[in-house]
Amino acid sequence: MIPPVDSRDDILTPALLVDLDAMEANIARMAAHLAGRGRGFRPHGKTHKCPAIAERLIAAGAVGICAAKLSEAEVFAAHGIPGLLVTTPVIGPPKIARAIHLAARAPDTIFSVDDPGNVRAFDEAAGAAGVAVNLAVDLFFGRTGIPPGQPALELARLIHGLAHARFAGLQAYDAAASHTTGYEARVARTRATMAQAVDTRRLIEQSGMPCPMVSSGSTGTYSIDAEIDGITELQPGSFLFMDVDYSRVGGPDEGPYRDFTRALTVITTVVSKLETAAIVDGGYKAFSTDRPLVPEAVDLPGARYAWAGDEHGRLDLSHVTRDVRVGDRIEFAVPHCDPTVNLYDRMYAVRGGRVEAVWPIAARGMSQ
Ligand SMILES: Cc1ncc(COP(=O)(O)O)c(C=O)c1O
Q1: pLDDT tens digit string along 16-59?
Q2: Which residues touch 76 (CB under 8 Å, ≥6 apart)?
Q3: How many A from CA of 144 to the centre of ligand 1?
Q4: Residue 220 CA: which ligand 1 atom is closest?
Q5: Pocket test for ligand 1, best of 30, 42, 47 (most atoms within 8 A of CB)
Q6: What is the Cα–Cα distance from 220 to 117, expressed in whole angstroms?
Q7: How far apart are CA 267 and CA 280, in angstroms?
Q8: Which residue's alpha carbon is nearest to atom 2 within ligand 1?
Q9: Is 173 in the pocket of ligand 1 (CB under 6 A)?
Q10: Are 294 and 316 in contact (CB under 8 A)?
């Protein structure tokens, strides 16, 4: 049982905070940008894993929410979130049985596929359950997926010809494009891969099959992809929160990427003080460690964080001008938002000094 907390100062540390003013501004900006260009908005739920945020995104005009995994989608469905797109292939009979169960409860759910055997298994399971299942062909741009062009067309044709599968369109996320550093390099990368996606759509439609969806895009490429005819919707995630990693990919002026404002922080407490270093109560278990980046102190210019173990971080204070004491609370921008969120059971939604809500991160750990 979590005791109610009204003031930001009373949140026990380490804790995950979302600044509501910043997140709401990020949502409004992304939603307006995509609406202004006639693109759908299906933001990725893997970033927040939080039904309360999914509800806000739907209220802002999102057509649905992406989920990385089946179990993540199940959580969103249980909270009544519509328009789920599962962006990773669902493999093997036990998971397919659960996917079909989900399709029966939430018939607009779409599953990504890249393998003919997997497509047939979906069709058979759907037939046995007496439901139809929506399948999107996942295009290969370096990770999962089937190569764009003829191979993707053939898979679409297979789906189209089956009794219980419906061809929903193309899943065309390009992971490498989203984090390409340097704006011009990012433009070049995403234009090249998205051209393959829209060419594949054309090929499918020329062969007589409707291809209603090409879902793509990310925080790093949204403004580029939204200008490409044939991309029907975008699925960015990190724009909600932002992190140290995304601040470094480079904006259009080749300075920092500033399209969205940092909304996510981890708050810590100084638990020990040495001469020019402070030990805070946030280490490997409080921040993701998947990138060669460290947390950045938000209101302590000159402080440099170093990992000091599972539970601790060491802040070098040699270049800090103000006094730092045991008991001080220090907030950090996180190196990478998605895996950091996955470390916490709840998120404190704050506005200024007030805690407006405590949101369960209900799909935390839902990686199956
Ligand atoms: C399939 C897919 N789509 C969209 C996204 C969102 O990307 P970003 O967080 O860079 O906006 C991700 C992130 O990893 C993803 O895996």
Answers
A1: 999 999 999 999 999 999 999 999 999 999 999 999 999 999 99
A2: 45, 51, 54, 65, 67, 84, 363
A3: 13
A4: 10
A5: 47
A6: 34
A7: 10
A8: 173
A9: yes
A10: no
